[in-house]
Amino acid sequence: MAAAQRGGGAWVVAAWTLAVALPLAFLLLFFVWPVVSLIATGFVTDGRVDLSGVPEVFGAARTWRVIGQTLAQASLATIVSVALGVPAAYVLYRLDFPGRALLQGLMTVPFVLPTVVVGVAFSALLGPGGPLAALELERSLLAVVVALAFFNVTVVARTVGSFWARLDESGNRAAQVLGASPVRAWLTVTLPALGPALASAAALVFLFCSTSFGIVLILGGREFANVETEIYRMTVQFLDLRGAAVLSLAQFALVGLVLVVSSRLRDAGERAVQLLPDGQRSRRPALRDVPLLIVFAATILLLHAAPILTLVLRSLRTGAGDWTLGNYAALVRPPPEFPVQGSVLSAIWLSCRIAFVAALIAMVLGGLIALVLSRRPASPAARRGQRLFDGVVMLPLGVSAVTLGFGLLLTMHRPLGIGLDLRTSAALIPIAQALVALPLVVRVLLPVLRGIDPALRFAATTLGAGPGAVLRTIDLPLLGRSAGLALGFAFAASLGEFGATSFLVRPGEQTLPVVVAELIGHQTPGAYGAGLAGAVVLGMVTAAAMLGAERLRLDRSAGGSRASGSWAGSRVEF
């Protein structure tokens, strides 16, 4: 019997070791090695280490101006995103009304649209000839902040809303019965319970905003540049790898600081709360919900619908202002002078195939990572290792897409001695997209797993269940609740990824975001309108994917409820 237990323990250790080793190997090979190699090229001159670029870069006034602008843009956009995202989370996940599932899916479209397209849409809205041109905001800090919030309100709404949807608010009602006003009850009971979820969402949004590229490049230009666009300018325009490497290290330091702060906030505010089954989580809107409904409606109409509507209308007009469907016809049969090889329909099909592979990679690795991070080791050393593992997993969020793309091209020539040049194949594209989607998958799955009451696992173990049985009967049924949402995010993020993909595509095998960007920037008559039409198509495909994922999530939620029988407390973290 003892031998059997030792044998079972050995298999458990081997399984958890594999769960850690597989994602780490993927990150080390396809992320750490390329990024470090590219940065190293900026600190090596004639085969010797040369650190003279550090004082040179940080001694320049522009460097500190760019860093300050990065912090200002990211901070302001995070505040706006949280302020607008919390009402959206309440309306979409606490209230029940016709069309809610449709809105939940459509709210994801802004997040995954290529940044170049969104930048052009806001430029058309705020620039000369646009509806808001009189405000003269096209090249301003406000335009950059609002455009960044366009993407990230969805992040806050989904991160907070998916948790808030199952939050037991009996404590809130009890506080009101004891005489507290609805506002005071929310501030003293509900808000503390949502605190870790808000910290998680805010940290994630800050990372996205501080590494934004297309939005700042188009709406901010050189005057409002951030670290990301400055890295691009140094690398592509001036081939200054040394300066770009120094700025990349500064970007890593900023990302590491955000991760440390968010981890401390998580540990300080983490608390167990009671979750409810799906059938009890929402109610019909009431009169007291009108202010939040107004804020949500204004967000949808002014922040999201206005630029998207501008995009759609511009795709239906010629350069002379006449109405036409020719821009969409050009997607099927593009003129020879367009920078597109083959039809845009083939680019759509290729994008979907690549995004599906990337989503599968991200789901497998993200599931393993979430399982490892959800455990609560007793050893202080193991807990420190777990935090370090968590930080490594989140690093792709804060790395320049330019750095990652160039790094992959630099290192993937017969990697590890394998007789295959990955740079000549399309294999690197889903790998790069999976790196982008991986942190999102982990952050969707991890709160559910960490929310499982340890007493449930202990009770199952006491009744004779082995580690595999505990995982199969407790963890996986609850994990299934968020699998559809994670899959949708992974697919959508991969489908709209532009930065790294633009460096990895091969001639004749362009993804749709790359095609859109090339059409928009091309001088051929009609190319700009066709690019806008392609962006509309990309939004429609993304919306359909997210609606399907939302349906899958709901279906699996019902199955998860039947399998688990009850809901455990939950902790949300970043």
From TrEMBL:
Domain of life: Bacteria
Membrane topology, from the record: Multi-pass membrane protein
Record CDD domains: TM_PBP2
Record field: transmembrane: 12-33, 71-93, 105-126, 141-165, 186-219, 239-261, 290-313, 347-373, 393-413, 425-446, 482-505, 525-547
GO process terms (BP): transmembrane transport
Annotated keywords: Cell inner membrane, Cell membrane, Membrane, Transmembrane, Transmembrane helix, Transport
Record's keyword annotation contains Transmembrane helix: yes
Recorded GO CC terms: plasma membrane
Location(s) in or outside the cell: Cell inner membrane
Every ABC transmembrane type-1 domain range: 67-260, 348-549
InterPro entries to which the protein is assigned, alphabetical: MetI-like, MetI-like_sf
Name this protein carries in UniProt: Thiamine transport system permease protein
Origin species: Leucobacter luti
